[in-house]
Amino acid sequence: MTGTPKYKRVLLKISGEALMGGRDYGLDPDTIDRIAADVRGVQSQGVEVCVVVGGGNIFRGIAGAAAGMDRATADYMGMLATVMNSLAMQNALEKLDVNTRVLSAIPMATVAEPYVRRRAVRHMEKGRVVIFAAGTGNPFFTTDTAAALRASEMGCAALLKGTKVDGVYDADPVKSPKAKRFERLSYRDVLTKDLGVMDHSAISLARENCIPILVFSIYDSGAFAKVLCGDGRYTEISEEGVT
Hints:
Elements: E1 9-14, H1 29-43, E2 48-53, H2 61-66, H3 71-95, E3 100-104, E4 113-114, H4 117-125, E5 129-133, H5 143-154, E6 158-163, E7 168-169, E8 181-182, E9 184-186, H6 187-193, H7 200-208, E10 213-217, H8 223-228, E11 235-238
Parallel strand pairs: 1-2, 1-6, 2-5, 3-4, 3-5, 6-10, 9-11
Antiparallel strand pairs: 7-8, 10-11
Helix pairs in contact: 1-3, 5-7
């Protein structure tokens, strides 16, 4: 890492799709190992890191509901997918000698600790990476909302969202080459323009707790560390954003 990190404690939100790498489904070991190495690099600089991983690479609750499943049942299945991804990320981190704990919002003591806020804070204070699994533990809430909630509960100074692209655009840059990229946005900008980077409840929760959201490409090796130092390409969403 070059430079000095701007934040002492952060939450990294990774979409399940990011873990697929170039695959159409499931987990790509090389991608997981690279992300784990980036997390270790940040954590080794004294930054306290917690992580929320989505489950879209295995099962998306909203897609199941659209196919005719009961929405609550589909969402619970999606939460279980996040547990699988969290265990994979824990394994990758511990191969790099990074002490890691998975805390699940749905109790499953055989594979993960139950989520208890004070326990999670204590793990982070001891220098462990904490991975929050199973979303909020409730259906009808996305893992983006879970990330904003956990960031608020942990007292994180920033929420970093690792995506497939290097920031927030006014259209899909893959489909629209002329899509405009934003350097800074306000929470209100994201909500009123309906930019779709995170769901509205997640944006509103971050806004209420004055937690800036930094959106960057998780595919760029070392980008996590660069963004924490204010370098690299990313979009910052805060109260005083400028489009």
